[in-house]
Design goal:
homodimer, about 350 residues, alpha+beta, Creatine Kinase, Chain A, domain 2, two-stranded antiparallel sheet, globular
């Protein structure tokens, strides 16, 4: 997987899908633990190894479509692990750990099952655009198939038991990656941040937990999973909260196009100009410029590039991807040079 | 003059001439005062009016080639006066004063004679590239012709008498406009500033006295005129000091091209990218980007534009010029928009 796919993005990141002007992708994650074992943080190496082997055999036996490819992270190179992080298929912590751990990934990268991360099993389903229900439905199917093979720790009172109390209950976390350049440019983004906080939502950057929002990409997710059914959590998020933010962003974009078209075009075309000419390009600057290009595409201000191209570039300009594409390690300055050339070529500049 | 020439630069600014890679232009200025009158600062309005009239008639009678066109600054609009400042034909103070004053300018703008600025008569000759001797020779001829009509205050002991003691003696000031992006990029520019200070040279920005160097353009001039002959001043400046700086800049450029070509190209091509795409452009940013473009041309890194085009743009992007070209007053945001469009058109982008 990590060998052949580094120069294109997973299906979920290529754009398309409902509300794709604002919603890049949808994600549903389920946290599960095997009964009869301590949580990962309290398990010793033998227990972890045992857990890993049980999961590997179960997944191999399970009838999951599309089929999953097993990646033992202790056998994976540091660069391959970094690539998986950049593709949002494993967490940073999972990449950096040293104990027995793995991830099982479907060919199209829509499904990823981390083994021995914070929980024994963390199943994620990714979809392009606003497709949370779809993602949940698939996660539910895979969860059922896995549950036929594995005995998940479940309390009739609390629901699924998880290592961290915030996941107890349904063990579900739903999140969307939003592109909010309109709200950023109109200065309303902080209002959204505050509102999200009031609604107990977590707001993170493109690069996940602990990262700042770069390129106006914001990952928004629910924080509590106890006391609500999966259906209620999904409905609140998908049908109430996110549509409001999406509409708010669209309104900001329309206001920009209607009343500040020159300021908007200045950002969009400068972004195009810099991306097509730079000889050295850092990843943050690239993402920030691609964000404006994407905004320009959504508002029909520019047509020199396709949306899929821009969406893919947002992923591919990351360090591990570039080194995979170059097929060799690249130090900082060399990487910035390679990134600039790669972007120019992709943009046909 | 101010009506038809606002969309092109004076001959001296179009580029060309010796050492044009580093020396944009050469200037010689002579300060003279009429015997029998107080200096301008001490003259009353009637005396200034009288001085103005005497100079006007003398210049009209004098056999000066190319012929001079008289501009009474009290009759000129504020925009026209600003245009003359931007073209380096009058000083900022001369533009802003309200008392009787004028400037006589040759069609090609190589000669400008300010009347009633700090001195009664300030004669300037401008040349493209490194042509100080040439500029001096012409200034000397015009000075002689004027002296046949006007009785200049002269002391056998001190030389020409001037309002400010720093000009007493020869009354000469020689200056060059240097483009020093290489020394700026290699961080050696401060050494040059210090060395210039040690040699009693004044270093100013493109926009003249009291302005910071923008776009790596530095105006360097001698500071003292007493105790040295014109020939000595010229020789020291033209044959000793400036050639050293020019060589120093060329060395810095070669070092950049040889050892930091990617950093260099990044600056040059980004400048091109931004200038050809921006929809809003401030004058300082434009000058700064044109400076990199000029560097790229000098080092054969880019060929999408001609040197004359870039040199002219450095002048034409200024506010008064843009408003003359637009043939209407332009407020700040509108001006930035007009500037961006004008630059794009000139660059054929």
């Amino acid at each position: 997987m990590t060998e052949h796919a580094s120069d294109k993005a997973g299906q979920w990141m290529r754009g398309g899908g409902p509300d794709q002007d604002v919603v890049l992708s949808s994600r549903v994650r389920l946290a599960r633990n095997l009964a009869g074992y301590p949580f990962v943080g309290r398990a010793d190496t033998n227990q972890r190894r045992d857990l890993l082997e049980r999961c590997r055999m179960s997944i191999a036996r399970a009838d999951i479509t599309p089929g999953l490819h097993w990646v033992d992270l202790n056998d994976a190179s540091s660069l391959d692990r970094k690539l998986l992080v950049e593709r949002h298929l494993i967490s940073r912590q999972h990449s950096k750990a040293t104990s027995p751990r793995a991830v099982a990934i479907s060919e199209d990268e829509s499904i990823a099952v981390m083994i021995n991360e914070e929980d024994h099993v963390r199943l994620q389903v990714l979809r392009t655009g606003m497709q949370l229900q779809d993602a949940y439905d698939q996660a539910d199917v895979v969860d059922d198939v896995l549950e036929r093979q594995l005995d998940f720790a479940f309390s009739s009172q609390l629901g699924y038991l998880t290592a961290c109390p915030t996941n107890v209950g349904t063990g579900i976390r739903v999140s969307v990656m939003l592109h909010l350049p309109g709200l950023k440019l109109t200065g309303e983004i902080d209002k959204v941040r505050r509102a999200a906080k009031d609604m107990h939502l977590a707001v993170r950057g493109f690069y996940g937990e602990g990262t700042e929002a770069v390129g106006d990409l914001f990952q928004i997710s629910n924080q509590t999973t106890l006391g609500k059914s999966e259906g209620q959590i999904l409905f609140d998020f998908q049908d109430v909260v996110i549509p409001q933010i999406v509409e708010y962003e669209r309104k900001a974009r329309r206001a920009l196009a209607d009343h500040r078209a020159t300021v908007l075009d200045d950002k969009v075309f400068r972004a195009w100009g810099t991306l097509s000419t730079a000889r050295l390009l850092g990843s943050e600057e690239a993402l920030y410029l691609l964000s404006y290009l994407r905004l320009g595409l959504c508002l029909d201000r520019i047509d020199s590039v396709s949306m899929q191209n821009v969406n893919e570039l947002m992923l591919l300009i990351q360090s591990a991807h570039l080194q995979k594409i170059a097929a060799r390690p690249l130090g900082g300055p060399e990487r910035r040079e390679f990134r600039a050339r790669f972007v120019r070529e992709r943009l046909g500049a």
